[in-house]
Amino acid sequence: MGPNTVVVKELAERFPGFDVVLAVCIARNIDRLDGETLANLAIESARKEAGRRCQDGISYLIMAKRHLIETQLSREYELVILRRLKVRSLEEAWQAARAAAISYRGGQQ
Predict the structure, then answer these.
(1) What is the pTM of this model?
(2) Which in 23, 36, 57, 101 has the greatest CB count within 10 A?
């Protein structure tokens, strides 16, 4: 699979209430997949335009948690974000990242 390849598969396994279940497979786009790397990318994205639109890694993690979605790296990813930004919640982390982004641009959002 190349770096820009997207494969959509129909799953043979059936799920109650669904006629068709599709799975999307994409190529790996993060070389070192661990909590540290995900936290770095999340904080960086929150400080950019994606953060202004709440389409960043911290917002993603907030929404995943609200929907009770957890991966093997979720907890480590969250703890690293909180530690790096010196806050107690992901919502505070997002605010801290956005505040840093605004201060870098001289107060412009």
Answers:
(1) 0.75
(2) 57
